[in-house]
Amino acid sequence: MPKQPDNKNQSTRHHNRRSPEPGQNHALTLNGRIMVLLLVIGFIAAGCGVLIYKLYTLQIRDAEQYRVQAAEQQLSDTQIPATRGSIYSANGKLLAKSSVVWNIIANPSKCNQDYVAEASQKISELLNGSVSAEKIQEQLSKTNSQYRVIAKDIDMVTAQSIIDYANTKRITNGKAEGDPDAKYETVLSMYKESSSTREYPNGMYLSSVLGFCDDSGNGMYGLEKSYDEKLVGTPGRSISSENAWGYELANEESDTHAAINGYNLNLTIDDTIQTVLETELSNAIDDYDVQNRASAIVMNVNTGAVLGMATAPQFDPNDPYNITEPKLQAILDNAGTALTEDDISVLQSRLGQDAVADIIADGVVNPNVTKSTDEEGNEIDVPSEKSQLQGMIREAEWKNKAVTELYYPGSVFKLMTAAAALDSGLMGADQQFYCGSDLTVFPNTEWEHSYRCAEGNAHGWLDMAGALNHSCNLYFIQVAEKMSAEFFYNYYQAFGLTQTTGIDLPYEAKGISKTQQEMEQVETDLYSTAFGQSQKLTLIQMAAAVASTVNGGYLMTPYVVDNMTDDTGNVVWQAETDIKRQVVSEEVSEQIRAMMENNVGHTGTSNDLDYHGCASAYVAGYRIGGKSGTGEQLDWKGAYKYRPDGDYRKAISFAAIFPADDPEILVLVMMDDPRWIFDNASQIVAPVTGNIISQIAPYLGIERDASYDSNGSVEVPNAIGTRWTSAQVKMNAAGLSHRFVDTSDGDVVYQYPAGGTVVPAGSTVYLYTQSTTDATTTVPDATGKTGTFAAQMLKVSGVNVAISGSASDRVVSQDIEVGSVVPYGTVVTLTTEPDGSSDAQQDADTPQDDAAQDDTPQDDTPQDAAGENDQESTTQDDTGSDAEQQ
Question: What is the pTM of this model?
Answer without folding.
Answer: 0.80
